Amino acid sequence: MNEINGVICINKPQDFTSFDVVAIMRRAAGTRKIGHGGTLDPMATGVLPIYIGRAAKTADLNPVSDKKYRAAFRLGITTDTEDVWGKVLTENNKTVILSEMTEAVKSMQGDIMQTPPMYSAVKVNGKRLYDLARQGIEIERAARPVTVYSIGLSDYDTEKRTGILDIHCSKGTYIRTIISDIGKKLGTGAIMTSLCRTMAAGFTLDDCHDIEALRNIPPEDTAKLVLPTERVFSCYDEVQLDDKQKKLFMNGMILDCGRMDISYPQGTFLRLKHGDVFVGVAKVNEENGLKSVYLNILS
User: Least enclosed by CB within 10 Å: which of 1, 75, 272, 273?
Assistant: First the structure.
């Protein structure tokens, strides 16, 4: 069987680490050449793109870095982890009506400054915050800019003070911190009770497969489910290469945009094809040339 090259998306179950999924997919694909598109905490579920074979090199090249989530929350409680799995710190019974809840949610949209939670993988002075938190140490953390492109309240129960948020945000945004900050604005406190990533790297839940269904299947069956690597770069403009241009590009040569009769600003990424075959990705350099960023085929 030929080597598998491409992307397969997994709907990560709760209580699995991202590495657990990678380990299963290494067996299912029959290769150790695998990467993933963004770590999900064990308690989270949802879209986890797995890059297989030569496509593993594209995990860090993906042009779509923003993400979408569906998160459930509960008001009236705070914990040391900002979610339901942490140690309870405070509780209260303040009532929050729908209009107040909606206003607090809307205040989170746009460019905001967010302080990373202590239970996070952020490094401060070379140490992971969660390592310090587990020792009972809390330190000052600098707020960081993040963007919440949209945030909507899709469900809210006034009596139970529970609800669901749909959030589209930039890379590095902590959803449980958004919920915690909403709780602070309302004067109630709030925790996240569940989290599902609904979009990552341009892939959605509709693209995903059940990891349990893949656990014991042979690589030839896994190969049938793999999406082409080109899908990762579908947002880039397509440029067709002739036979000579393809050969030069594959030999590491920089192609002249002027001779190809194409014009793009410096820094533009382009998806190169030869007929129906995806050749690779190039970036326009300062000399108006196409320099290889990723080569999809070897011959």
Answer: 1
Report d(CA 261, CA 146) in Å as an integer.
39
Q: Active site includes 15?
A: no
- Name the residue with tokens 């036979």: 243
- Is 85 within 8 Å of 43 (Cβ atoms)? yes
Confidence of residue 126 (pLDDT cuts 50, 70, 90): confident
Task: Give the separation between CA 193 and CA 174, rounded to whole angstroms.
Answer: 14
Q: Which domains does the chain have, with CATH numbers?
A: 6-64+201-231 (3.30.2350.10), 67-198 (3.30.2350.10), 236-295 (2.30.130.10)
φ, ψ of residue 115 in degrees (nearest 5): -90, 120
Neighbouring C-beta atoms of residue 40, cutoff 10 Å: 23
- Given 41, 83, 181, 207, which residue is catalytic? 41
Q: Is 248 strand, coil or helix?
A: helix
Average pLDDT of every residue of the chain: 92
* Partner residues linked to 192 by β-bridges: 73, 83
Summarised one tens digit per residue, pLDDT across range 211-227 is: 999 988 899 999 999 99
Q: Select from 170, 192, 178, 199 the least CA-distant residue to 68.
A: 199
Query: How confident is the model at residue 210, as a pLDDT?
Result: 95
**CA distance to 70, 126, 239, per residue, from 57 (Å):** 29, 27, 21
